[in-house]
Every structure is written in C-alpha cells, then in structure tokens.
Specification:
Helices cover about 60% and strands about 5% of the residues. It has helices at about 5-25, 30-50, 65-80, 85-95, 105-115, 150, 160-175, 180-190, 205-240, 240-245, 250-255; strands at about 125-130, 135-145, 155. It has a 3-stranded mixed beta sheet. A hairpin with a 5-residue loop joins strand 1 and strand 2 (about 135-145). The longest helix is centred in the C-terminal third of the chain and has 33 residues, at about 205-240. It starts with a helix and ends in an 8-residue tail after the last helix.
C-alpha cells in the first residue's frame, strides 16, 4: 500500500535530520547512503502529490535512459522484490523503451562491483534480496538499495506477500494511468492467482476488485511475514558490513554466522 503524502513528509523530515547529523559527525558514507534514501522518498512524495505520468525513454538532452534506471522504474512501481521476468513485464506494460533481457543477467554483479569499488557513489544500487535464514543473495530477486532492510529480506511467507503487494500497486497504478494491452495482460496474470480477484469471469478483472482481494489475503499473512523480516533484518545489521547488507553474505561469511533459532 502506498504511503500518504503526510507520512512521506514526516519520514523525509526525519531523514534530513539524520543526514545532517551524519555529516556533522564526519560519517560521510552514512550521510551519502541516507541522502540516496532521501531522494527516493522525495521522488515518492512527488508521485503521490503530482501524479505519476511515467518516465520517458529519453532524457531531456535526448540520451537514452540506462538499463539500471529502467529496472529502477519498474521495481519502484512494484514496491517489492521481483524476479527479472516480472520486471520486464512491468516495464513493457507501463514504461516506454525496451529492456534487453540478456543484459539483466550481469546487472546485479555490475552493481556490486561498482559499490565495492566506490561505496555510496550512486544514489541507489540494484541488489539481490537477502534470504532470511542465511542472509545470502536470494536467487533471481532484485531490490533497490534505498528500500528499508526489512523489505529487502525474504522469508518463507514473503513470496506471497510480495506478490500481493505488487498486485495491489500495479492495480492502483492502472487507476491513475490507463493500461494498454500489455498492462491488461499483467493484471490478468495477477488476478488469476488471487482468489476473489475476478479472473474467472468473462470480463476483464477490475483493478478495484484486484486491490480488495489482494488486501484481504494480505491481512492473513502480512504480520507474520513482517515479524520474520524484521528479525532477519536485525541479524543482518548485526552480522553484515555495508556491502553484505546490500548484496548478501558471501559463502565464507555464511559459515561463521549465527542462524535464526528454530
């Protein structure tokens, strides 16, 4: 569910204070990281207040939008960890331009290499989600570095809650920006896997119906998933360095880390 402008403004104000404190204390890496998160919140506030007309496939100077920005656009709309195939479908449905699927294979590795070479030199990074048990990179799930750590961790219930979250956000988006054929196909795919979303009828599922059905099921799973993710995020902060919290623990680190109690 999208945050209200008021909630975003409150978080923005708090982050600005955190940036100032980090800079005043000489912690420049943390200040840069917080600044990247702040930019993401400010962009979310603009979308919430001014509406989202969608990014263009070219910048004002005529240059093409890089792949990482195209992926960032799609992930920001989804608001949850997503597989490259879903990122491609969302971009195709709602954004101009084209993502070359083959280039997604090396994207996360390129992002990690960039971070380790010059930490926090970019406003955001495209990372892998972290598994809640090992805090290792989750295979085939992309996230944005500026998201809260608990949103970048995935546990046993996360696949379903993230699917329902993405379905809600996509349906809400189509209420603001009419969907074309690719967008309607994407809505069908979501609706077909959500009981009560209307995919079994002769007419197209309505976005409102998808939203209601997804939120109803989210109420069943969301709190348990949130608690699992919070516990895992706490372990990640305690056990991993900055790079590990973004890109996951390496195999040699996993062997020496404590695992969650069963």
């Amino acid at each position: 569910m999208e945050e209200t402008p008021e909630a975003l403004e409150e978080r923005i104000a708090g982050l600005r204070q955190d940036v100032r404190r980090a800079a005043a204390g000489g912690d420049r890496p943390r200040a840069r990281a917080l600044r990247g998160e702040l930019k993401g919140l400010e962009a979310a506030w603009e979308r919430s207040v001014l509406g989202d007309d969608g990014p263009q496939d070219r910048r004002p100077d005529g240059s093409m939008v890089p792949l990482r920005e195209q992926v960032h656009h799609a992930l920001t709309l989804l608001g949850a960890p997503a597989a490259p195939k879903l990122v491609l479908r969302v971009h195709e449905a709602f954004f101009p331009g084209e993502i070359v699927a083959a280039r997604l294979t090396s994207l996360r590795r390129d992002e990690e290499r960039s971070f380790r070479t010059a930490p926090y030199s970019r406003p955001y990074y495209l990372c892998a989600a972290l598994t809640a048990d090992l805090l290792a990179p989750a295979r085939g799930l992309l996230v944005v570095s500026t998201w809260p750590l608990q949103r970048r961790v995935v546990g046993p219930l996360s696949a379903r809650t993230d699917f329902l979250t993405a379905a809600t956000r996509i349906a809400e988006h189509t209420l603001r920006v009419p969907a074309g054929e690719a967008g309607r196909r994407l809505l069908w795919r979501f609706a077909a896997s959500i009981p009560g979303a209307g995919a079994g009828g002769v007419t197209e599922p309505r976005p409102e119906q998808i939203i209601d059905a997804a939120r109803s099921e989210l109420e069943v799973h969301q709190e348990a998933d949130r608690q699992q993710r919070l516990r895992a995020a706490g372990r990640a902060r305690a056990q991993l360095d900055d790079a590990g919290q973004l890109f996951g623990a390496r195999l040699r680190d996993v062997r020496g880390m404590s695992r969650p109690a069963t």
